[in-house]
Amino acid sequence: MRNGMRRRGLTVAAALLTGVLALTGCGGGGGDDDKPGDQDGSGSSEQQEADQAAEDADTSDAVITITPDDGADNVGINQDVQVSVEGGTIDEVTMTATETGAEVTGTLSEDKTSWQPDAQLERATQYTLAVQASDSEQREAHQEATFTTVSPENSFIGYFTPEDGSTVGVGMPVSLNFDKPITEKAAVEGGVHITASSGQEVVGHWFGDSRLDFRPEDYWQANTTVTVELDWDGVEGAEGVTGVQDRTFSFTVGRSQVSTVDAAAHQMQVVRDGEVLRTVPISSGSDENPTYNGQMVISEKLLETRMDGATVGFTDDDGEGEYDIPDVPHAMRLSTSGTFVHGNYWAADSVFGSVNTSHGCIGLNDTQGADDDSTDAAWFYEESMIGDVVIVVNSPDEQMQPDNGLNGWNMNWTDWKAGSAL
Questions:
Q1: Residue where a domain terminates, one of 42, 58, 74
Q2: Are residues 160 and 263 in the same domain?
């Protein structure tokens, strides 16, 4: 009951109660503090509407959207982070690595309605993103989000050969090596797009779960430009493991150089663009340690390098390497297992062109120090590039395995295509 009714005391007859309640229901009685529609003390409905109108007048029409959501994790490191605004324009975006405070630079669209980072983000890193925008009345809107990028444990990386922008020989495949085993091979292979200016068909082949090579049926045509797109961002490579790369690289195939080593004749014929450039006397693997036959691709060039037999299984009864030469000159790798074509300064000049004495490498006459440009080894080193082909024939050894180095040419085209997951 209202205050005015309390003054009548508690002895009011029950018969009058209905009238009192009816009077109370009409708002009668009561003191000056009681106002129609304001029983909760919050002000009149007109006042509430006025307050809401004032609040609305101060609210910006700019609506900010930050992707990903606040608190998100396993965020991609390429295109997953974006800012957009409707009903206004972006004034300022600040994105920092939460732990270090390092700022991430970004690009604002010409119409100032969107923003995204300029470069790939770091994995397993928490970032904070703060945005300010304004509408046409210069009323500001603000929004923040904090999120964490995908961890190395939940993502895969593919390391590629050859290098971006390099010029290589006609035998160079595109070789992709993954930091984790890939089970969803079709999805990962399908994210690789290769185009060649020569128009040659390029097909992938899986060597196990962590390596994927691409090549055409025959060697690349000379002077071909090859472009490779890796579209793996967000692609599932295995359960709980997604790709984070979204990039393009390209390389150029230079002149054609294919050198053929005849192990029985102790000679190497160097052919460039179909013409014999020079025939060089060599010494290949001995009868006890013959050189592999087959097509091999130069994958590394070293002006000087150490060669220790113990690292490739050539040891004596005491477990020591059968040889340890600290300064082998003009060395070019042909296989992962240790086959090289290199200079040899420790053998007599008469060895080259007449007898095979090595542990499986192809030796060319040279001098110690790798500083004599007149030797056969120095000449071949200068005339060769990564990706050039060296073919060994007439050796008593077996053929080089396709996955030993960049040597997939030792597999016929039918078998090569059968190794594709697509």
A1: 58
A2: no
Q: What letter would DSSP give residue 59?
A: S
Q: Specify whether 298 is located in the same domain as 396.
A: yes
Q: Which of helix, strand or coil describes residue 15? A: helix
**Mean pLDDT computed over 354-375:** 96
Res. 58 pLDDT band, cuts 50 70 90 = confident
CA–chain centroid gap for 109, Å, is: 26
Token pair for residue 279?
């025939």
Range of the domain at 313: 257-410
Residue 418 in any domain: the answer is no
Q: Is residue 416 part of a domain?
A: no
- Predicted local confidence at residue 23, as pLDDT: 34
Residues 40 and 28 in one domain: yes
- Start-to-end CA span in the chain (Å): 83
* Cα–Cα distance measured from residue 309 to residue 321, given in angstroms and rounded to the nearest whole number: 5
For 207-220, write each residue's pLDDT tens digit. 999 999 999 999 99
- CA-CA-CA-CA torsion for 282, 285, 286, 288, nearest 10 degrees? 180
Residue 404, Cα to own-chain centre: how many angstroms? 24
Burial annotation 19-45 (CB, 10 A radius, 16+ → b, else e):
ebeebeeeeebeeeeeeeeeeeeeeee
- Please report the pLDDT score of residue 307 as a whole number: 85
Say how many C-beta atoms besides its own lie within 10 A of residue 401's C-beta: 17
> Is residue 194 domain-shared with residue 338, that is, in the same domain?
no
Please check whether residue 286 lies inside any domain of the structure. Answer: yes
Q: What angle do CA 403, 234, 204 make, to 5 degrees?
A: 25
Q: CA-CA distance, 81 to 115, in Å (whole number)?
A: 9
Give CA–CA dist 124/152, Å, rounded.
Answer: 7
Same-domain check for residues 51 and 179: no
14-40: per-residue pLDDT in tens? 333 333 333 333 333 344 444 444 444
Which residues are designated catalytic?
342, 361
Cα–chain center distance at 27: 75
